[in-house]
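Researcher: Next entry in the queue.
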Amino acid sequence: MAAGEAEAARVSASAVADEGDPRLTSLRTAVERLRGDLSGYQAWLADREVAERELTVLAEQLAGGVPEDALLSAALLRIAAAVGSVSALAPALGQLREAVELFGVPRHRVQPPVRHGAP
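Model: Structure for this entry, 119 residues:
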């Protein structure tokens, strides 16, 4: 089997296997929604390129199957930092966060400070 045929077979087998994983479908949908919403957001956004780059990396990783947890977590963090303050993008960003959490990537929460001494 030629190298091109082997790659085509791998991609085809991967696509069939991925169809049974609703997490991948959810993440693909969320990535495309945020890409579309970001594209439609015409106001200046300082870190637009960062968000677009991270969404492209996520889409490429999804083409290969289930992405690594570290990649998902880091990409979500960078995307949230880039677009998190834009209320028009908040619903799509929330959908992306929820899709990433389906892979078991924990939500990062700030813990309240521990008080020492008398209450």
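Model: The longest helix spans residues 22-40.
Researcher: Noted, moving on.
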